[in-house]
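yo, Erythromycin esterase is done. seq:
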Amino acid sequence: MTPVLDLLAAPPDLLALGEPTHGESAFLQIRNEIFLSLAAHGYRAIAVESDQAAGLVADDFVRGADGVTLEHALTEGFSHGFGAYPANRDLLVRMREWNAGRPAAERLTFHGFDAPLEIEGTPSPRRYLLQVCDFLGVDRSAEIDDLVGADARWSDTAAIWEPGRSVGRSADAQRLRVLADDLLMELHRHAPRRPEGWRAAFVRATAAVAVLRYHAAAAAPLGRQERFAHLVGVRDALMAENLLAIRAAEAHRGPTLVFAHNRHLQRDPSTMTMAGTEVTWSSAGAIVGALLGDRYAVVVGSLGASPALGIAAPAPATYEGKLQRHGHLPRCVRATEVESGEQRTHDYRYFPLDQATVAHADAVLHIPTGTGPALLADRILALPGVEQVVASEENGAPEGAWGDRFFHVGPDRRQPFATIVEHDVPGFDEDSRLDRPGVFRLNVDLGRVEFTRLFGFPPRDFDAHRHEFDFARLDTVLPHPGYARYGFASIVMPGPQVLPEVDRLLAVAHARAVDRHQRATRRTTAPQG
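structure:
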């Protein structure tokens, strides 16, 4: 794939990489590769579509903070459930590995840039205000508790739909906004004396302000269509403020990559249907782009098919269909080189490319297809003489293995040359964390020679090297955690960008299986003397 920076007229301070949908892991996996390659060119931070205050926890892990485990960083360091995505685990682990032993100026930083809210729900500002007070060493807890009252009245989702139920324009809420503003002023007054931890306190203070602003917007007495347009516009304006603050903090260290849905990053007006209402607003990207000019660049994401989301291949006349003609591997192209097409049918799973979005982008990242067990199985079955056995109750497989796939050449079913598994084997094979939703692993029989060439040691020495590998990492050829000593390798969730290497390894394993089958055939058909 062409490096992103090679497609831009000038290197930006803030490079935006968009995805057209949430839930297709291929975008996150390719994002990880792009970010680590950009780190080699001076990029020092990534900002993702997740709660900025929660992101402090993920950044603590990335920085190697004692006491912050990976599991804690994933559960507490992301909002919107994004910590469950396996590729986000990889991102944090790889950033932490990069940072180990490097000087502070070269270390990578993780940021969330969303406000701590969902479009249809917003929490109480209590904890953010108390955290700022704790940093400042002031006790205003009684006043805050009195004004906030019960948290339930803030988190009431019905208040988003019914302005009269919102607390956002009450006298208590207005006094809290003044209090939050006072705390922000105090933070700046204390900055010379309290630089350590100041940035985190500032993020929490702005989170409190954001929550109070959104509650006020939810209480506005507007008509339905105008109301939803206002709410999504306020959210993106808060995102834009956070991005500008992140850039101010990172300006002396290097450029920043931002990753989010296209609708939050595109320069042209964003549209979305909510509760049967079409709303239009200016995205965070449109706001930041207007303020930064050519210091902001955006690469919008485009998707062909997604087995994980049930999205079929696009019609040939659409933008995505025309991009699809150029092969099965991801590609990044200048927006000016994208052929005009029809707009793909839109549903809740995917926001298609259109003329305006492409015209206002700098480049387009097109992923022809996400990968999945069925897609990989089709690639294996296309090899000559291959048959597949799917573990099931009918063929006597244990329940924990049902759905796993085994690929053979010839009638001997004792030694598959490749398998696709979606389940851990408790007590034996759990290191790949196949218990995570949607996670699968391809295993291939490489034999001693290819195994040794790949890993630098023969299969028999695997136990001495086991500690060197993170078996849950995606897109990486690793020794099989259970069968490496027999020459097996594995790849967890290989993304579309690694399909050429997958095909090469499958060819090696298939050739070994064919050779075994031919030798067995010669033995059984040889004349008996």
